[in-house]
Structures are given as structure tokens and as C-alpha cells.
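Quick one from the shared queue. A colleague (R.T.) flagged Cyclic nucleotide-binding domain-containing protein as missing a structural entry in our internal table.

Convert sequence to C-alpha cells.
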Amino acid sequence: MASDRRDNRRDESVAGSDGRIHAPRTSGSLAQLRPMLLDGLSDAQRLAFLKECQPLHLPGPAEILSQGEPPRSCYLIVQGRVEITFLDHDGNVVLVHVAGPGEMVGEVEILSDLTCAATCRTYPHTRLLTFGAALLTRHVPPPILMRNLAALFHNRLLLHSRMRAITQFYPAEARVRLHLLNLADNRSEVQVNQAQLAQMAGCSRQTVNRVLGELRAEGLIVTRRGAVRILNGASMKLGD
């Protein structure tokens, strides 16, 4: 998965007519992107698709997909993070996932012609590649696309089942730990605050604060405002 470190080179991005900043294409960074939806393509085929995508740099937070609305595009994350949230009928906002480099959002909606199942909002200094269904289907043969979509749904089904198991069978303290690990998804830092963790774990903020304090004391995490850096994820797993 591509690194989340910011490029220290001069930013040659230019402002587009939509007020957003359209970033320049760099073949080096594109070569590192290997999204699941493009599995099975050769390196040349994958790079050809990526070069036709529209690069987009969002310096500040921006809502790129809105729950219940038609998708404007599909987005591949090059750098930064995208927060995915779901709004239920009672007005509760649930943090579903924090997507990172190499992940896509909106791919299911652009291929199904359905409205967005969740809202996606970027974190500051996020770089994206945007594309539509026509470009995707032109570059990815149907058998490969179908297999990759099935693999994507399989992974999401596993995640959903894992989350259900966490909710039903684990105490609050364990739920906080497991939700942190799920959000991290092999990344060292999780962009999440205590209120969001409490909501996901179905417990009080006091419980979250206590668990985070215990993890800090054990040397497993470091916390800062709105983020948790995981130092030893293996030791956070239950049974370790």
C-alpha cells in the first residue's frame, strides 16, 4: 500500500475551474498504486488506466460522496485519508471506515447506478484520482472486473461479520481494542477521536479513555488529538 507521507517537493498543483486543486500526474507515485479492482491487469495496463484518471488535490476537508445522492465519480486515494460515515434514520452518525492510500470509494455506486450508501469526506491534504464507469470498463475486461468485485464484496462481508461478532460477544474494553485494530487495517495511525470510538464500541467515553490510558501505559499506543498511533498491534489482539 502506498505511503501516506507528504511529498516534500514543490507542489505544482493548479487550481481548476471548480475551485479545487488538480494535482499533476507523477508516474512514480502511480506505479505504487495497486487497488484491488485492478488486480489481474499487467503493470502496463494498470498504469495506462491510472494515467487517464483525473488527479485531484484537496487541501482541506471535503465531502466527495454524499449518502443518498448519486455519485459524482469514483475516487482512488493516492495520499491522505477518507472518512466513511453512515447516517441512520434517527440521525446517528456512525464511523464505518477510514480509507487510506490504494483504496477506492464510490466504485460500487458508479457501476450499479445506485445512490451512495455512505458519506465520504477527505482529511486535509488528500490526493485522489477520479474516474467514471466508462473509463473503468474500457480498461478492465468484464471477467476480471467481476472477479475483483466479488473479492471486494467478500472482504467487506468478512469485515461486517467480524464487526457483528465484536458487538455481540466481547466486553466493552475488548471492543475498543478490536475496533482500533480494524480501523488501522495494517496502518500505524488511526484518525479517530474518543467519541467515535465510544460510538463504535457501544460504550461510554470514560471507558474509551480508560482503555486508551491502559494501552498507553503498556507502551502499545501513543495518542494525540483526533488520532491514535499503534506501536504494537500484535500485542493488542485478544489472547496476547
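The longest strand covers residues 93-99.
The mean pLDDT is 86.
Added to the table.
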